[in-house]
Design goal:
The structure holds two protein chains of two kinds. By secondary structure, chain A is of the alpha/beta class. Chain A is built from 15 helices and 14 strands. The longest helix of chain A is centred in the C-terminal third of the chain and has 17 residues. In chain A, 48% of the residues are buried. In chain B, helix 4 crosses helix 16, helix 8 crosses helix 12 and helix 13 packs antiparallel against helix 14. At the A-B interface, helix 8, helix 15 and strand 14 of A face strand 1 and helix 1 of B.
Chain lengths: 391, 491
């Protein structure tokens, strides 16, 4: 990502969009343009924070449109000059950027055998379909502000748990109609010692039986770090346990309730144990930029890379309606963040983490990574599990 | 490491190449074997269909290749025994070992090799042994002996040892051990000693295994090694010792070794308990459970005795007829049911033996023994007693890790080819392999009796290995002395 290069410019744009959000031109709304917004089928307030865009080169990005900051963003999404066929991002001080919108309408309008819309069960993001089979099982209000930008919009759940058939049906629909080739499952149960792994295991094995896919998982860390082996054995190819900040106190600002149940030590122990079990580069953790000084984040990146853990850097932004709970609502300066991301990439390259065969969804999401495993990668992931894990 | 009652998982963090080798070696062996067969098939195209003795012909190369492949699979257990046995049938049928025979005729010929009378004898012997076990005949006899004569700790242990030794004359050694093992467990439980603390009890279980193992080499019924070895001789039209003639060869090994083992037992595992009153009460209770020696047991015993008599009178050629006749009588009179017996018969071993005999026949008809002898001879000493000692040692070492049948199937055909050049009688060579092959004392995988005794949990593996190694070492001079003092005068 050398300064001045196309990808560096794209990274800066992407970061700036995540940082500042984006306004939608009234003409676009008035024209009834579908936009393939993540908001299309939204039924629950607080889940319509963003839309998905494809930047030049097909780089998928989720951008906020609903936060206070976004409403004052210099970026504007509108029709390109000359008609209503193409879209562009315009900026007060920059040249316009042509963009396209991902076509996920076909996927979202498909139904499972039980009659539920696939759009209710999962969200497509690039080659991934992201599914949370359960309603969050934490105490009420646990994760407010529960998301940060960079992630795809959360899908509302119309019931407390999706069945295995529904989840598999949704993944198969995404496979057929949206070109998805990877599945990411999110689940956590902070009150249980296994972090919710046992609930997820049947879904993992059913997905592996039904599709030639790799499955990435974000779960709560288990009490016993060695239980990560159970998760790997069950079929998870990549795992993420999110530290959010290197400093425990800083992390607890955004996840106050999680901090009561899950210590930083428990997360870190699970990450270290997972790095010993999962393929190189398949274990990752999110670090939010904005919660602690950048030098502390850089130190965290170096330490994590040495441990074989991929640090994902994401600019923290609170959800609409939760801005007042965030430690900061100011937009961040881009240059230091871009420099930090560059140094993180070098650290990953030095540790052999940058070009691993198996990668998790959060890692792909937060970086400029267009990961798509080849059949050899899938074979490697399967053979490695068969060879390494013994009853 | 794992949740619930699921077995704990283990992560193998060795280098992937090592993991691959340790997990995939079976596939690797199979690939190598198939490559070897393919190479032999290609190479045989450049060889003549017929050749004078001592010169390699195409059929001989193919037969040797199939033999080597089968032995490799048996040694490594890369595939189940039954699979390699069936594979031998397929390979021999396709190998065109007899020039001029069509595909159908070739298959029919191989089928006749598989249908060797020895295989049918073994089937009959397995069925008879299973009948004795199912009818609790030996159980009754053993209990009578132990309960009546086992009046002191030493006597009780020695009686169990010698009962196992004698019972293995008429039943397979593992069936004997399996039947007497519960009695040994009853004795242990009645004595209420802390597991693994009593040398007496350790000797009780190890002695049971030793007794059955040594007794198992005496007749054609104690194990399948002797009949199998004789089957190889039969293929060469060599006169074979009959049921009782075999005792002249086996008893000079078995009896001295049994005495040595009995003495070793007392020395290595001294009596460290005062009374066996509780054990005697437990045995009496088991006798009460079994009840009287019912007509069923009497009839089974009579049929068994009749079979032994018939074997004595009818000669070796008819042992298969006698064995199957006795089995048919036992089943036909409903003294035992087929359901009881079919699970006791080791069908995979039967296929293995049939395949081994067919392989030997294929080597013979292709003139391979002369070729093998030519290459093997320089490695063997030219003193008969030295050769016997080496054969016995090799057989005993191999049998610690391989199936008995596989060792006999590998060594006997090879050594029969060199026997004349070494000045040894083929029968002696076959027995010099077959008898020591039954004498595995060191490792549980070496023989089923040891595995059963080890399952008692009374002694660590190192104990069994240490004393077993000593007994194995003592067995070699016993075999050599038997050759010098008895066998060499019989042939």
């Amino acid at each position: 990502m050398a300064p001045g290069s196309a990808s560096a410019g794209l990274a800066a744009v992407r970061l700036d969009l995540i940082n500042q959000g984006l306004r939608v031109d009234d003409a676009l709304v008035a024209a009834g343009f579908t936009l393939a917004l993540a908001t299309t089928d939204t039924r629950t307030p607080g889940t319509s924070e963003g839309i998905d865009l494809l930047l030049p080169g097909g780089l998928w990005t989720s951008v906020s449109i609903a936060t206070t900051i976004a409403r004052a963003s210099p970026w504007l999404l509108g029709f390109a000059p000359g008609g209503q066929e193409s879209l562009q991002l315009s900026h007060r001080n920059r040249p316009s950027i042509p963009i396209t919108l991902p076509d996920t309408v076909r996927f979202r309008h498909q139904s499972t055998p039980t009659g539920h819309s696939c759009g209710d069960i999962g969200a497509v993001h690039g080659r991934w379909v992201v599914i949370a089979p359960f309603v969050a099982r934490e105490p009420a209000g646990f994760d407010r502000p529960r998301r940060f930008l960079g992630l795809p919009p959360a899908r509302p759940l119309t019931k407390s748990q999706w069945s295995i058939d529904e989840v598999v049906g949704c993944a198969q629909a995404a496979w057929r109609s949206a070109g998805v080739r990877l599945v990411h499952l999110e689940s956590s149960h902070l009150l249980r010692d296994d972090g919710g792994y046992a609930d997820l295991a049947p879904y993992l094995s059913a997905l592996k039986r039904s599709l030639p896919t790799l499955v990435s998982v974000s779960v709560a860390p288990p009490q016993d770090p060695l239980q990560v082996l159970d998760l790997y054995h069950a079929g998870a190819d990549a795992v993420s346990y999110h530290l959010l900040a290197w400093d425990e106190a800083a992390a607890s600002q955004v996840t106050p309730l999680r901090s009561r149940f899950v210590s930083h030590r428990r997360i870190l122990d699970a990450l270290v144990a997972a790095a010993r079990v999962f393929p190189r580069g398949a274990v990752s953790t999110d670090l939010l930029l904005g919660l602690e000084p950048l030098p502390a984040v850089e130190h965290a990146c170096a330490t994590l890379c040495e441990l074989g853990i991929v640090p994902n850097l994401t600019v923290f932004r609170p959800l609409p309606g939760a801005e007042d709970q965030a430690p900061t609502s100011e937009t961040a300066a881009l240059e230091p963040i871009l420099a930090l991301m560059e140094r993180r990439m070098r650290l990953m390259q030095a540790q052999g983490l940058a070009s691993s065969r198996v990668r998790g969804f959060p890692r792909v999401l937060s970086g400029m990574d267009r990961y798509q495993p080849s059949p050899v990668d899938r074979w490697y992931a399967t053979a490695r599990r068969f060879l390494r894990v013994r009853p | 490491m794992s949740a619930g009652s699921r077995p704990a998982l283990r992560f193998d963090n060795r280098p992937l190449v090592l993991v691959l080798l340790s997990r995939g070696w079976r596939v690797l062996v199979l690939i190598l074997v198939l490559c070897g067969l393919a190479w032999a098939l290609l190479a045989s195209r450049h060889l003549p269909q017929t050749a004078p003795p001592g010169v390699m012909s195409a059929p001989a190369l193919r037969a040797i290749a199939i033999f080597a492949a089968a032995v490799t699979l048996w040694i490594t257990s890369a595939v189940p025994l039954v699979v390699s046995g069936i594979g031998v049938f397929v390979a021999l049928s396709l190998a065109q070992l007899m020039p001029g025979l069509g595909a159908g005729d070739s298959t029919r010929l191989v089928a006749t090799w598989f249908a060797d009378p020895i295989v049918f004898f073994l089937l009959g012997a397995f069925l008879i042994a299973a009948s004795l076990s199912a009818a609790h005949v030996i159980d009754h006899v053993a209990l009578r002996i132990l309960d009546g004569l086992g009046t002191s700790p030493r006597r009780l242990r020695q009686l169990l040892y010698w009962t196992a030794f004698l019972a293995a004359f008429v039943m397979s050694e593992h069936a004997v051990t399996a039947m007497l093992f519960p009695l040994a467990v009853r004795i242990r439980d009645a004595l209420k000693l802390r597991p693994g603390t009593s040398r007496y009890l350790q000797g009780l279980f190890i002695g049971l295994a030793w007794g059955a193992t040594i007794g198992g080499i005496v007749t054609y019924l104690g194990g399948s090694r002797n009949p199998l070895a004789m089957g190889f001789l039969q293929h060469k039209d060599i006169p074979i010792p009959g049921f009782f003639e075999l005792l002249k060869y086996s008893l000079p090994v078995a009896v001295p070794l049994a005495v040595v083992a009995a003495l070793l037992l007392e020395w290595a595992f001294p009596v460290d308990i005062d009374s066996i009153a509780a054990a005697r009460e437990a045995l009496a209770e088991r006798r009460r459970e079994l009840g009287r020696f019912a007509p069923r047991q009497v009839l089974v015993t009579l049929i068994m005795a009749g079979a032994v008599l018939a074997w004595m009178l009818a000669g070796y050629e008819n042992i298969a007829v006698v064995a199957l006749g006795a089995a048919a009588l036992l089943l036909g009179t409903r003294l035992v049911s087929w359901k009881e017996l079919q699970q006791e018969v080791p069908w995979d071993l039967l296929v293995l033996y049939a395949a081994a005999l067919a392989l030997a026949k294929s080597l013979t008809v292709t003139g391979s023994p002369a070729l093998i002898a030519k290459h093997l001879l320089p490695f063997l000493p030219h003193h008969p007693a030295g050769t016997i000692a080496i054969i016995a040692m090799v057989a005993m070492l191999l049998t610690e890790a391989m199936s008995h049948g596989a060792v006999v199937s590998m060594l006997v055909p090879l050594l029969l080819g060199v026997a004349p050049s070494l000045g040894l009688d083929p029968v002696i060579v076959a027995l010099a392999v077959a008898l020591p092959t039954g004498l595995a004392f060191m490792l549980p995988m070496g023989s089923p009796p040891l595995a059963i005794a080890f399952a008692s949990g009374e002694f660590p593996l190192s104990l069994m290995t240490r004393w077993g190694a000593l007994l194995n070492t003592l067995a070699v001079p016993v075999v050599v002395l038997a050759y010098l003092l008895v066998w060499s005068h019989l042939r």
